[in-house]
Design a protein that fits this description.
The chain contains eight helices and four strands, in the order E-H-E-H-E-E-H-H-H-H-H-H. It has 204 residues and is α+β, with helices and mostly antiparallel strands. Helix 1 links the parallel strand 1 and strand 2. The structure holds glutathione (GSH).
Length: 204
Amino acid sequence: MLTLYFAPGACSLAAHIVLEESGERYEARRVDFSKAEQRSEAYLRINPQGRVPALALDSGEPLTENTAILSYLGKRFGLWPKDALGDARALSLIGFFASSVHPAHAHISRPERYASDASYFPNIQEQGRKTFHLYLRQIDERLAGRQWVSDAYSVLDPYTFLFYTWGVRRELPMADLKNYTAHTERMLARPAVRRIVEDEKIKV
Ligand SMILES: N[C@@H](CCC(=O)N[C@@H](CS)C(=O)NCC(=O)O)C(=O)O
């Protein structure tokens, strides 16, 4: 059985939704950030980076990084393109999400990663906010005339949905992003998404 290590509202949300939708039995184990459990010795053996998500495979071997976890789950559950070009396009998008969109948000939530002098934090956060907002607008443009972020529903849609919830959390003007808001509504129409949103107590 697969085990997902997650924290409510964190980027592990995408994998949590995918597992919930899969219909397979899985275990979701909460990593409590308020108790710094992500930096505990036990958790560092699962993910030496001290981050969620981590996925313990059927063998118990841990898999880390959203790019690896989501593409693995996507292939396991038929939510990843099968053709070479579709695969390359999905990798392009997941790479953009994990290496640009997510780190832009981390500048807001974790400025201490980017400077040791706290007087720089407001500037780092302001710049992160602008960049994160720019990326959300780009996602909105990409969604124009599309139901899903790729040609068909895939693991990239829960990942796309995650960033919308972060935009709401940062009080960005998300309602102005009409295509992205419509995508979020389509996500919320999926019963498994609603269950996880409720379970993780996410504001959308
Ligand atoms: N590159 C990693 C980033 C994971 C990551 O940054 N996770 C955050 C939550 S969204 C985390 O666990 N933060 C805990 C901390 O910074 O102490 C991935 O995409 O899986």
